[in-house]
Write a structure and sequence with these properties.
Elements lengths: L4 E6 L2 E6 L10 H16 L5 E6 L3 E3 L5 H5 L4 H21 L4 E5 L2 E3 L1 H8 L2 E4 L4 E3 L13 H4 L5 H10 L5 H7 L4 E2 L3 H17 L2 H34 L2 H11 L15
Parallel strand pairs: 2-3, 3-5, 4-6, 5-7, 6-8, 7-9
Antiparallel strand pairs: 1-2
Helix pairs in contact: 1-3, 3-4, 3-9
Length: 266
Amino acid sequence: MTEVVHSELDAGICTLTLDSPANRNALGATLVDQLLRGLRAAEANSEVRAVVLTHTGGTFCAGADLSEALAGGASVEEASSVGTGAMLDLIESILELPKPVIAKVDGHVRAGGFGLLGAADIVLAGPGCTFALTESRLGLAPSVISLVLLPKLTARATGRYFLTGETFDPATAVRIGLVSEAFASGDDLDAGLATVLAGLRRASPQGLAASKSLATAGVLAEFTRHARQRADESAELFASEEAREGMTAFLTKRRPHWDLSESGES
């Protein structure tokens, strides 16, 4: 099996690197399986104090990879159900992990990539980051990832970016609560991560677990309460004619019939 998630342990910090740049680190079956295995191994290893989630290539994560399931003969609805289940598993695993998860991102974030950032405890962004929630342009909605975005983003931010699908930068991501801190260069990003990790290495495992539990309790409770409902909503949207039109237009690089903009661009 191709290794698309690399794991490295250094002085108590387990770094999990998404390494499938050819498909923009999309959440296909192999990547999801290896990432879940990495998270579980980090939980079971008493030497691990915290987890850093990062990536290779210019995209952190482009969301679900439906191509694998579609190539296997699944319908769009069946493929989307697989993708939704994978996203729920990843979010729950990150939230429940009794060790901090720090996302170090310096690339584009789309769709399910927001779910990973929303579930992470600390998010550090470099200058190469762009962010866009484009689901509404496809006849969809950020249903499942809203479980971890709504508790963290401001109400005005969700009211804008969930609806418009426009791209925003790291400074805006900090201002609206998606990102903990943004950095002007890759070197600054590395230094910022080093500062965070130095603090975590000074903390006791018990202290970290108890403190994370306090910080995530509300998010996890809402996740447990509404996960099934959000998954059902997502499935209903994927099965709709508008979603079929939106995804077909996206894949064939044309404008969907509802696009009334002058250029069709963000």
